Amino acid sequence: MVMSGLGSFSDSVQTAGTYQVQGSLTLPGISKGDVANSQVVTVVQQNGSTRYTGLAGAEGFNITLVCAAGDVIGIILSSSAAVDQGINVVKATIAIG
């Protein structure tokens, strides 16, 4: 799954088990010619409860969740930094499995 821009994504688990939730982010940064470094924070939730909060500007995440059938896994990308607000400036590739 690919996300473009800040926002959220959620998916329901069909079968109980252990799930690896991982993602890699492409972020703006001074080294890439932008005016400032990204301050994007990634949050992973399970049924609305936060299970992981990444460091601002981290370019990836990886967490293992133990889920029951019907659990909802949510991923939120947020930032208040101006450099992160542009359309499709932040891109994330997410895998749940």
Structure, explained:
By secondary structure, this protein is mostly beta strands. The protein has one domain (2-96): Jelly Rolls (Sandwich). It contains no helices and 8 strands. The protein has strands at 2-4, 7-12, 17-26, 41-46, 49-53, 60-67, 72-78, 91-96. A 4-stranded antiparallel sheet has the order 1-8-3-6, with no helix packed on it. A 4-stranded antiparallel sheet has the order 2-7-4-5, with no helix packed on it. The chain is elongated, with a radius of gyration of 14 Å.
In short:
The chain has 97 residues and is mainly β.
> Counting H and I runs of at least 4 residues, what is the number of helices?
0
Question: What's the CATH class label?
Answer: Mainly Beta
Query: What fraction, in percent, of the residue positions are helical?
Result: under 10%
Write the CATH fold name: Jelly Rolls
CATH structural architecture: Sandwich
Radius of gyration: 14 Å
Q: Assembly state here? A: single chain
Given the helix and strand composition, which structural class is it? mainly beta
Largest sheet: 4 strands, antiparallel
Number of domains: 1
Uncertain segments of ≥5 residues (pLDDT<50)?
none
Element-by-element helix/strand order: EEEEEEEE
Overall average pLDDT: 95
Walk across the major sheet and give the strand order. Answer: 1-8-3-6
Number of strand elements: 8
The N- to C-terminal Cα distance equals 12 Å
Record keyword descriptors for this entry:
single chain, 97 residues, mainly beta, Jelly Rolls, four-stranded antiparallel sheet, 8 strands, 0% helix
